[in-house]
Amino acid sequence: MERDEELRNSCFLSLAVLSATFGSDIPYRDGLDAGFPFRGKRVPFLSTQKGIFRAAAQRGPAALSVQTSTNSRYDDAALESGFRYAYRAGSPNQADNRALQTACLLAVPIVYFVATRPGRYAPIYPSYIVEDHPETSSVVLAPGRLIGPLDEREPALIEDPIERRYAVRETRVRLHERPFRGQVLLAYRDSCAICRLKEAELLDAAHIAADASPSGEPRISNGLSLCSIHHRAFDQNLVGVSPDYLVHVSSRLLDDEDGPMLALLKTFHKEPIVLPHRSAWRPDREQLGERFERFRDV
Q1: Contacts of 120 (CB under 8 A, 6+ apart)
Q2: Which of 91, 131, 135, 296 is spaced 20 to 30 A from 202 at the CA atom?
Q3: pTM to 2 decimal places
């Protein structure tokens, strides 16, 4: 059966360009919606109307991509060996489900698009359907890898079970962080809470209570939208935010006079941060207080 290898490689190369342009979360509008070039035509990456997608330009029967939306009603979940992905509701033999089953049978690489917030997707590619479970109407997806020179990379399935489990764990961590980042940046209207920078590609979602701590849930009120510089300064306790939402710069930096970037950091000392318009999204004062104490102790 036809594997559509040339088309899949064109898809992956175009995703690499989009990822370099937009970062880890690619917008659908003015990004994915343009599709990718293949033999003089534009081919869609995915369908926004359904989760399982096979392009009309394909000759083979296997799916090109699958996607999980922000409000998915299916039972997708992380497993030790990969990610469970549900069949489309209805008969296991309908066309979309056969496209999943055939992707497993042929071991072809696909793209797993995970919505991080409305209108933005994190593409996991190459991914492979490594298990098909008709009895539970689901498959298991596992991340693969790209091998070879940058301009000639080929997708490959990770055969070693230990290496695959490691890749799954790494992917799970990234997927855990991306929806949190998307929610926090949306709450702060894609702006740094300290310096007001409005370049989403340069913004992070900083945890107030550490992700690994008991109170470090990925909630908007446990996050701050910060540019890369202020995020690093916040993590290193060079910049703190008090429970009354004021920025504080460490005395070590205030006493230093080395360069314009440092002067810019000092500019925001004792200035208020930008707050989300919904009170439920605003930084938790108790968590900020605990974090601010650590800042003062350094």
Answers
A1: 25, 26, 27, 28, 182
A2: 296
A3: 0.73
